[in-house]
Amino acid sequence: MAPEEKITSARQRSIQTAIAEMFAPYFPDLKKKLALANLSQTPIEFLEKVSLSALYLSVAFLFLTGVAFTMQTPPVPLLWLVPLAAVYFLALFYYLMLYPDSLVLKRAKELDYEVVFAGRQIVIAVKSGMPLFDAIVGATSGYGAVSKELSRIADRVTLGVPLVQAIRDEAQQNPSRYFVRVLMQLSNSISSGADVGSSVEVVLDQISKEQVISLKEYSQKLTPIVMFFMVFGIIVPSLGVVLATVVFSAISGGTLGMTSSILAPVFIAIAIIQFLFLGLIETSRPKYII
Q: What's the fold here for domain 105-209?
C-alpha cells in the first residue's frame, strides 16, 4: 500500500473511531450483548462497522430521494436533503444496532430447541455411572447449538480449566435462560456434592412443563393475531381501495380515480403490513421439541 493510501486509510479509521467513541456511552450494555450474541468484536469495533454501514446506506437513500425530488412537478428543493441526511443516518444507525439483539434472540431459540433432550442424555449417562465430564462430551454431537456450547465447555476443561469454572463461565455468556438453569444446576451440584443426575432431572422436568405452557399460550395468542391480520392485512386494504375508487369517481364525476401513482404506494403499504404480521407470527412462535 502506498504511503498516501495508508494516510487516507488511517484518517478514515480515526474518523470511524471518533464516531464510535461518541456513540459508545449511549450503549453501556453493548459489550454484554456482543458476548451473548457470540460476536468476538469489541464495542468500538462494532460501532465503527455500524457507523460506516449506516453512512453508506444513508448516502444511497439520499441519492434515491434526490432522484425522486427532481422527478416531482414542480421539483422539490434539494436543500431538504440536508436534514434528511441526519435523519437517515441516525435511523439506519439505530436500526443496525439491533443486530446483536436479533442474534441473541436467535441463539437463545436455537439453544431452547433441544436443551431438554441434551440434558436428559447427560442425566442418563450420569445415572448409569459415567463421569460428568464424559457425559458432557457424549452430548457434544447431535443436539445442534446445545452441542456446540457443550463442546466449548469440554474444550476448556481439556485445556486445564476446572469443570465447575468452565460451566459457570459458559453460563455467564449464554442467552438461553433454560440452558443457564441447567448449567447452574450442574455447577451447584458439583460444588455441593449433591446427586447431579437427580437434581438436573428435576430442573429438566420443570423446563419441559414451562415449554408446554409456553406453547399453549402461543396457541391462545395466535387467534387474535390471525384475526387482526385478516382485518388489517386483507379486508381493510381490499375494501378500502374499492371504496376510495367509488368515492373519488362519485365526487369528481368520473374524472378522478385510483391512478397508478396512487395504487403503487397503496400496494407497497399492504405488502409491508402483511410482511410485518407474518414476521410477528413467526418470531412469537416458540420452537421446542417436547
A: Receptor-associated Protein (1.20.81)
